[in-house]
């Protein structure tokens, strides 16, 4: 399974997720279960993108640019469906990429780990989409990417970190269980990834993300 196929799966999953919120509002439906596959795949692709990019600075600036571009459409969509406002997922992915950069580029490994931890904490402090958990997932995927068993176990552990407190607070509500299960199912296409690029679509997500949010937000507000 190529990077292109992973992107298509993630984009379709994201569409289900956002369409579900557009139709049903904050209520969780089967659309949102299917939508849980999207972010882990995007997070994994950031970790892979770091290893394959020919220009790291351009990669970082591209994520930052589209994070800025996407913020107004993202907040319009959040407002339209009644969600509290946060920073969009490009900021989450950007912090994840920066945590990897800190780990790899800072000569002093202890300092690199500390700065990576700061990037992860900023996910919480800046209230990005998926919070610190999303940034941590990008970083963990990078650290564990060379061993499929450790990758799977690490992913499962990070899912538990997110969902166990939610499940306890909700008395193990079945909806939250399904959300956790469908999030973990993202490991299937990730493990099937063959390391090949496939069809070149560098700007597919970058353009589609703010564009579809704008369309959904306008359609809701009208």
Structure write-up:
This protein has 222 residues and is mostly helical. 78% of the residues lie in helices and 0% in strands. The chain contains 11 helices and no strands. Helix 5 packs across helix 7 and helix 8 runs antiparallel to helix 9. The chain is globular, with a radius of gyration of 17 Å. The relative contact order is 0.17.
Write out key terms for the chains shown.
single chain, 222 residues, mainly alpha, 11 helices, globular
Helix proportion = over 70%
Quaternary structure annotation:
single chain
What value does the Rg take, in angstroms?
A: 17 Å
Shape: globular
How is this structure best summarized?
Helix content is 78%, strand content 0%. It has 222 residues and is mostly helical.
Topology:
Blueprint: H1 3-24, H2 30-35, H3 38-52, H4 56-81, H5 89-105, H6 109-125, H7 131-144, H8 148-169, H9 174-184, H10 187-191, H11 204-221
Helix pairs in contact: 1-3, 1-11, 3-5, 3-7, 4-5, 4-11, 5-6, 5-7, 6-7, 7-8, 8-9
């Amino acid at each position: 399974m190529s990077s292109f196929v992973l992107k298509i799966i993630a984009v379709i999953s994201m569409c289900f997720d956002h369409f579900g919120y557009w139709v049903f509002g904050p209520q969780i439906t089967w659309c949102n279960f299917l939508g849980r596959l999207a972010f882990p795949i995007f997070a994994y692709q950031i970790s892979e993108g770091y290893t394959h990019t020919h220009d790291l600075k351009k990669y970082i600036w591209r994520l930052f640019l589209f994070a800025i571009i996407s913020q107004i459409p993202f907040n319009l969509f959040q407002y339209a469906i009644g969600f509290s406002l946060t920073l969009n997922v490009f900021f989450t992915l950007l912090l994840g990429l920066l945590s990897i950069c800190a780990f790899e580029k800072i000569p002093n490994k202890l300092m690199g780990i500390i700065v990576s931890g700061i990037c992860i904490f900023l996910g919480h402090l800046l209230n990005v989409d998926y919070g610190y958990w999303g940034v941590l997932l990008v970083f963990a995927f990078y650290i564990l990417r060379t061993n499929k068993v450790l990758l799977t176990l690490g992913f499962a552990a990070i899912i538990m970190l997110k969902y166990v407190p939610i499940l306890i607070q909700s008395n193990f509500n079945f909806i939250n269980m399904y959300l956790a299960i469908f999030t973990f199912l993202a490991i299937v296409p990730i493990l099937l990834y063959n390391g090949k690029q496939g069809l070149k679509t560098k700007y597919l997500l970058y353009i589609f993300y703010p564009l579809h949010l704008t369309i959904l937000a306008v359609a809701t507000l009208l």
